[in-house]
Every structure is written in C-alpha cells, then in structure tokens.
C-alpha cells in the first residue's frame, strides 16, 4: 500500500475489531447483474422484513451503477463479481454496472458526482468521503434496519462489527453532517507489528512482547539468531515514531506535539526518552541496516523473504506480499509494546484502525435496488469470500478470520480507543512530512544524538510555525 490512510477520528469504543486493506492500480471493467428483495426502511422485525422483501423482489428493476476502489485483477473484485452474480440471480430485472477504478477512484469520484454522472454506490474511506463528498452521501439509518443477506435474520446494522458501526457514525458529526450512518464499513484494517513466527521460534521466543523491555529482549534474541529484528521503508516511517509516542502518551498528546507553535513540547522528557531508545535500537543493530535507503516496498519484501523479523504495518500486509512470502509463511502480529513512564493515555488500550466503506449517492434514482446490492456486498457469503480470497478480516460478526490475521484478535480485544493514522504524528501536515520524519531518520541512522534531536526538533517547530 503506497497510499496512507490518515483521516480517522479518535473515539472511545467498548470493543474493537478492525481489518485489512490492500492497494493497487485500477482498470475499468463492467459487469452486469441484478438486485434482491428490499424491505421497507420502517420494518422493525426480521420476519416482517422477510415478508416485505419477498413481496418486493420482482418489483426491483432499472439500473444500478457501482464504482469500486479495486482493480479487476485484485482478489476483492472476484468476490464482488460473485456477489453481483448472486444479486442478479435473485433480481433479474435490475441491470448492474460495476466499474473497477482501482485507487484512481479517489481523484475521479468527486468530479463524476458533481457532473451528475450516474453512480449509485461507491467505495471510499468513510472519513475522507464524509469530509469531501458530504453533499453527495445518503443517510442510511432507516435502510440499515432491513434484513441482512445471510446473517441469520440480523438487520444490516447488527450484522456488521459494532465497533466499526460506532466509528462510522462518529465521523458524521466531525464532517458537519447530522449524526447518523452514511457509510457501511467493509475491508477494515488495523496497524500492528507483523512478524515471522518461524524466525521468532528459531530465536527461542515463545510469546509476543507486551512491554518495551520484552521487545528489546526479543530483539536481542533475534539478533543472536542471525536475523535483523526490525525494518521499515519510506512509506511507513511515521508509524514507528507515532507508535512509540502514541503508546507512551496517547494520540491527543502526539497531535498537540506536532502542532505546538512554540516548540517547547519537544523538550518534554518523553521526547528525550524516545530519542534515547531509538539511538539504542540503532546502536545495538536492531534496525535493519537498509532502513536509510529503503524505498517502498523494500522493507516488507525483506520481511516476506525472511531477511528481517518484524515490520510495523497494516493488516493488509499478509495479502499484499503473499506472492513473495508464499503459502507456508507463518504470520504473527502484536500491538506496539507498552512504553514506560507514559501518562496512562496510551498503552494497548489504543489502536489505529479504520475501514473502507460503501456509500450511496443521495441523488440516486434507484436507492431500493442500490441498497439491496449493498446488502449482498456486505453479506455473510461475500465477507467470507473476502477472508478466504483476499486474506481480509471480514466486516460481519461471527465470521471466521483468515489464519494470517488470527493473532490480530488479541489487539482488537485489548483496544478501547481508536487512534488516528500514525497515532497523531502525521497531524502536523507539512511539518510532519517535511521535518518530523526526516529528522527522525537522522536519529535512527546515527547522524544526530538524542540531545541534538530534542534541540533540533524544538527549534524547527518554532521556526516552522513562526507567524502562523
């Protein structure tokens, strides 16, 4: 994934489950299909919804246009094609056109919607969509009361992981919309350390590290076994900075740090502790010697090839490098270790997570058929297909996760706070990309020491924000 997802809002959640996302380029491809029974938005019981759906099955007709964020060569598109085929079998009077845009959808969707082009359903990051396309999205609260497809009588809302539904609802207020649901989450993800279990076992590591001290001990065992412990590349350097500081102090603190106009927050003892720990990782050769020049996807390829043991990334990673890693690669994952001397706002209660979403155009002329297609796309069968064919954790409740992501459940069960991308370290925009990350690399490669790092960051922050 060479595009980062950075637009997620912090919120407290009682439970948390999230899942993988995967990148690629797109070609357009059209597929015809049709739609299934649609219950009235006012239905309140599964039985009544079923009867209403059956009565309306033959009345759904017209055309539905779905713009997908996947290319027609990705495994997700195959699952979508199967869902559309099932939809067509149940609703032969509805014509469906699927356009596989790939990630180009991010630049194509807004002008297409504004020009009035027929697009009934589209895929987007919900945070970005509600911020940039809020004049085009349909509120789905009533529609979510319809019966889901294949989830034992549950409504659509109740068939999706509750933490994801809570998350997308929270985004509406942030975007300035009436509180409610404007997207149905699917293809969720979380940011975790992914590791090669075989290398851990060879080094004698029997449990994943929970604390920073345990993390360092495991790095030493990995080094002694002849493997480099940690890698990253230029696309994900921010995750290591934010992971440490966010684990120590929480994402709100990290957000304030990168926005501090005085530069004084960079003199906080936690920043010096961070700098000393990064220097320690470098001095003990726990970082891959290639991190200075690693260009995406070099780091993750080294993980797949067994040259390095750990890589901080998203849950899309096992699928993204499956061709290199092979079917026998033993995947494991764990949350960023707990950093000592923090403020109790971080730790493993916080996790960066999000999802893609399915949204309806509020100007659609065929909402009943469009939403019925959405129900197939987030139905139990399709989500099982995503898990099996795309190595993605399904968005539906009570659906088995793919084996490479099984250990991610531990992090999801621990977490109660949804942290933004990079734990807030990217919230400084140009300051983050132009100063925070480059100066971190000077520290991580030994060009500057901890005290010099603190002084430089304080001075650079004051200089950047002067007059702003």
UniProtKB/TrEMBL annotation:
User: Hey, what's the signal peptide range on this chain?
Assistant: 1-23
Report if keyword Cell membrane is assigned.
Answer: yes
**Disordered: annotated span:** 31-55
Signal as a keyword? yes
Q: Which UniProt keywords apply?
A: Cell membrane, Lipoprotein, Membrane, Palmitate, Signal
Q: List the protein's name.
A: Extracellular solute-binding protein
Please name the source species. Answer: Cohnella silvisoli
């Amino acid at each position: 994934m060479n595009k980062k997802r950075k637009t997620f809002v912090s919120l407290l959640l009682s439970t948390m489950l999230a899942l993988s996302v995967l990148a690629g380029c797109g070609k357009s491809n059209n597929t015809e299909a049709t739609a299934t029974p649609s219950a009235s938005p006012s239905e309140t019981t599964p039985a009544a919804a079923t009867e209403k759906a059956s009565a309306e099955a033959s009345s759904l007709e017209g055309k539905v246009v779905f713009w997908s964020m996947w290319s027609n060569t990705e495994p997700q598109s195959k699952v979508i094609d199967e869902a559309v085929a099932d939809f067509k079998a149940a609703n032969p009077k509805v014509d469906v056109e699927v356009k596989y845009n790939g990630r180009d959808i991010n630049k194509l969707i807004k002008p297409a919607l504004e020009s009035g082009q027929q697009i009934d359903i589209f895929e987007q990051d919900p945070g970005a969509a509600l911020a940039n396309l809020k004049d085009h999205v349909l509120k789905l609260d009533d529609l979510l009361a319809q019966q889901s497809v294949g989830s034992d009588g549950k409504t659509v809302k109740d068939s999706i992981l509750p933490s994801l539904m809570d998350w997308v609802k929270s985004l509406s207020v942030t975007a300035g919309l009436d509180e409610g649901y404007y997207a149905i989450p699917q293809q969720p993800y979380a940011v975790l350390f992914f590791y090669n279990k075989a290398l851990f076992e060879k080094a004698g590591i029997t449990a994943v590290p929970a604390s920073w001290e345990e993390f360092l001990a495991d790095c030493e065992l990995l080094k002694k076994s002849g493997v480099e412990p940690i890698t990253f590349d230029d696309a994900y350097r921010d995750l290591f900075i934010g992971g440490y500081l966010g684990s120590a102090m929480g994402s709100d603190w990290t957000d304030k740090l990168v926005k501090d106009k005085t530069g004084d927050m960079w003199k906080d003892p936690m920043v010096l502790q961070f700098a000393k720990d990064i220097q320690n990782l470098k001095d003990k050769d726990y970082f891959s010697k290639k991190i200075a020049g690693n260009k995406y996807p070099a780091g993750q390829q080294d993980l797949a090839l067994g040259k390095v043991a750990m890589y901080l990334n998203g849950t899309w990673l096992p699928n993204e490098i499956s061709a290199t890693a092979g079917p026998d690669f033993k995947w494991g994952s764990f949350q960023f270790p707990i950093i000592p001397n923090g403020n109790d706002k971080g730790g493993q209660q916080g996790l960066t997570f999000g999802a893609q979403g399915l949204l309806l155009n509020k100007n659609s002329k065929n909402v009943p058929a469009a939403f019925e297609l959405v129900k197939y796309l987030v139905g139990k069968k399709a989500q099982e297909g995503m898990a099996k064919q795309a190595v993605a954790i399904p968005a539906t409740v009570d659906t088995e996760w793919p084996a490479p992501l099984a250990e991610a459940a531990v992090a999801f069960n621990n977490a109660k706070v949804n942290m933004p991308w990079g734990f807030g370290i990217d919230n400084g925009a140009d300051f983050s990309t132009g100063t925070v990350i480059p100066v971190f690399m000077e520290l991580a490669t030994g060009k500057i020491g901890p005290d010099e790092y603190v002084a430089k960051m304080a001075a650079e922050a004051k200089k950047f924000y002067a007059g702003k």
